[in-house]
């Protein structure tokens, strides 16, 4: 595993840009260091890496993703997201606990939101029993990012959205002062309003929500 990580580190180092790195770190409020590699270049690097190492031809490798998550530079975690995305159709129920660990490690919106919408959302859709077994606990977790994940994991569901569940998780978090919870509520409502604007409008009108959540959630609702 270390050989793979060393190989990847060298590829990223070769394309490092100090000026970009400073800007990227500042964008994420200084929480993470960067090589300074923009997305198109990073995707080129990872494409060659995947091709030359053959790692995509092997089963989904949790150890590899965790090794990426241990690296200090944020590009490693972003590459990890792309790796997970390649296996979306192959992820099984037990992988939700791996995704949960990623959500709660080096947490920030750039990784959490992708994990929530894609692998978490996909696994939960395929195994709805996880709602009672796990996601209900996320919705009231002390970890803000798990609560945000519970709220937004249905973002891609459209007409398959479990409306009662969405509203339940929002109500459980409606009094939160956390920016990312308020924003997540607004985002979830905004996306669902594309499917059922009348339902969302009625929910907003009948529920005490933070102004930010209302503003975000109402963006696509006709006046």
Polypeptide structure, described:
With 223 residues, the chain is an all-alpha fold. The protein has helices spanning 2-14, 18-27, 39-53, 62-70, 74-85, 95-103, 109-126, 129-138, 144-152, 163-173, 179-193, 197-206, 211-217. Helix 5 runs parallel beside helix 7 and helix 7 crosses helix 9 (144-152).
How can the largest sheet be summarized? none
**Percent range for helical residues?**
55-70%
**Cα Rg:** 19 Å
The average pLDDT value, as a whole number, equals 97
The stretches of 5 or more residues where confidence is low (pLDDT under 50) are none
Blueprint of the fold:
Layout: H1 2-14, H2 18-27, H3 39-53, H4 62-70, H5 74-85, H6 95-103, H7 109-126, H8 129-138, H9 144-152, H10 163-173, H11 179-193, H12 197-206, H13 211-217
């Amino acid at each position: 595993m270390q050989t793979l990580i060393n190989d990847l580190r060298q590829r990223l180092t070769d394309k490092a840009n100090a000026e970009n790195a400073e800007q990227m770190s500042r964008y994420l409020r200084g929480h993470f260091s960067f090589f300074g590699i923009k997305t198109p270049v990073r995707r080129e690097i990872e494409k060659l890496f995947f091709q030359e190492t053959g790692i995509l031809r092997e089963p989904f490798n949790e150890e590899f993703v965790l090794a990426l998550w241990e690296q200090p530079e944020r590009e490693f975690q972003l590459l990890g997201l792309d790796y997970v995305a390649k296996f979306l159709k192959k992820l099984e129920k037990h992988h939700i606990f791996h995704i949960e660990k990623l959500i709660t490690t080096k947490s920030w919106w750039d990784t959490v939101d992708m994990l929530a919408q894609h692998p978490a959302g996909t696994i939960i859709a395929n195994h709805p029993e996880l709602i009672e077994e796990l996601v209900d606990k996320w919705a009231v977790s002390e970890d803000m990012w798990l609560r945000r994940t519970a709220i937004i994991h249905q973002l891609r569901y459209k007409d398959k959205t479990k409306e009662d569940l969405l509203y339940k998780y929002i109500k459980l978090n409606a009094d939160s002062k956390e920016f990312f919870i308020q924003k997540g509520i607004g985002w979830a409502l905004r996306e669902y309003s594309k499917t059922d604007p009348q339902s969302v409008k009625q929910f907003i009108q009948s529920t005490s929500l933070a102004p930010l959540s209302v503003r975000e959630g109402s963006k696509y609702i006709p006046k």
